[in-house]
Amino acid sequence: MSTETNTPTITPPRHATDDKPDSAARSNRKGSRIRPIAFWVTTLAVVFELVAGSVWNLLTIEWVEIQLRHLEFPRSFAYVLGAWQVGAAVAIIVPGFRLIKEWAYAGAFFLWSGAVVLHLEAGDGVESWSSPLMFAILAVASWMLRPADRRLPQTRRDHTTDAGQDEARLAVAGPRQWAVALGVLVVLYAVSFLTLPAVEDFMHQNAINLGWITE
């Protein structure tokens, strides 16, 4: 007679948490694709505004003169702003120069947030300060989204690559990256100059609508 007994095999229940690593990996991959796109969209918007602002200020177009009078600034202030806007645009778009990038972002934020405060102090409506407020927010977003190779070493938190890949990427800033960055700047300056006549007409009408000048 057999003494063998049939012992049922107990299979532990599968918990929902078993699927978490896969879902987390998918989420990380999705985030790793969205983050660079969001960075470049916000960065190009910030750089284009700095480029256009430098052209307007250095040429001191009518709109700039009207704003300076309205906010009670001397005309020479436009040249100071224009020169710094050129430097900030270059520092933000080109590879490397991570410490200077921090200063450029800070300067851009102070420029646009300061414009918001000045317009509010002058009693201007939302149509006057909403634009600088938007660009101040975009500057913060671009700064927060910047990749590891655009961060200072002590502030890098790149979760999408391991340490070795991170250091390898930081070491690469070849001629192609410089050519692309400088090419973008050339295109943005070309667009700013080519659209200047239309911009001046639009801004002239805008100044009339705001009541800052008369026909």
Automatic annotation (TrEMBL):
Gene Ontology cellular component terms for the protein in this record: membrane
Membrane topology according to the record: Multi-pass membrane protein
Keywords attached to this entry: Membrane, Transmembrane, Transmembrane helix
Highest rank taxon of the organism: Bacteria
InterPro entries attached to this UniProt entry: DoxX (IPR032808)
Chief location bin: membrane
Record field: transmembrane: 37-56, 76-96, 103-122, 128-145, 178-199
Pfam families: DoxX_2 (PF13564)
Subcellular location(s) per record: Membrane
Region annotation Disordered: where it falls in the sequence: 1-29
Protein name: DoxX-like family protein
Organism of origin: Nocardia amikacinitolerans
